[in-house]
Amino acid sequence: MHGSATPLSASAASAWLLVLLCAASGAYCLLRVRRADRRARGTAAGEAVMGFGMAAMAVPSGTGPWGPQILLAVCCGASVHALWLLRGGGHHAHHLVGTLAMAYMALSATAGHGHGRAGLPLVTGALLLYYSGYVLLGGARLAAAGGAPYAAAGPGGRGADGAGELVRACRLAMGMGMLAMLLSM
Fold first, then answer.
1. What angle do CA 166, 11, 70 make, to 5 degrees?
2. Which of 98, 111, 168, 174 measures 20 to 30 Å from 133, CA to CA?
3. What is the C-alpha separation between 120 and 58, in angstroms, rounded?
């Protein structure tokens, strides 16, 4: 969703850093799937799909096999999965918004609106507001958790939602990545 893949451009360097950040978050979430109990496995799997999907979307244009049509199909499949998991409540509503936002960006790219061109201003603006709020709230929660004694978070350093500080940091990183991609539209 970024500019050209020129090796010396600042835009390409920031795009590749975003790819790395999202892929690392996705890999960590994939590791969480293996360790999680049955109930938390769906959330971790959804976050892994989001991380890897965002990494694929952040690849500078003209690089790699990821065409907008493939990304659109993957994002739509992830949206259906998030909708299925939504029946359990919790963090899955955010996954649904995220997968729909990624499908929207992929659709904008297939329609010739991506890579620096705006999608629908109302949809883009609403998503920008959502992710700005998500990032600010997530950052505040992470800062508050960092200030509290580690043992106060409960067994294993996990908070009430079952997420440790590293999980919250990954969620925050992916939220910032989504915000950056939306800003580049």
1. 70
2. 111
3. 20
| Degrees, nearest 5: CA angle 102-24-2 | 45
pLDDT at site 137: 94
Dihedrals phi, psi of 117, to nearest 5 degrees: -105, 150
From the list 26, 36, 112, the residue with the least C-alpha distance to 68 is: 112
How many alpha carbons fall within 13 Å on the CB side of residue 174?
31
Tell me, rounded to whole angstroms, the distance of Cα 26 from its chain centroid.
9
Checking if the pLDDT of 35 tops 80, the result is: yes
Q: Name every residue whose Cβ is closer than 8 Å to that of residue 45 and which is 6 or more positions away in sequence.
A: 29, 30, 33
In this predicted model, what pLDDT tens digit does every residue of 107-161 receive, in sequence order? Answer: 887 776 444 455 688 999 999 999 999 999 999 988 887 755 443 444 444 444 4
DSSP code string of 77-142: HHHHHHHHHGGG-TTHHHHHHHHHHHHHHHHHHHTT--SSS---HHHHHHHHHHHHHHHHHHHHHH
Q: Cα(149)–Cα(139) distance, rounded to whole angstroms?
A: 18
The whole-angstrom distance between residue 13's C-alpha and the CA centroid of its chain comes to 19
Q: Among 41-50, 91-100, 114-123, 136-145, which is the least confidently predicted range?
A: 114-123
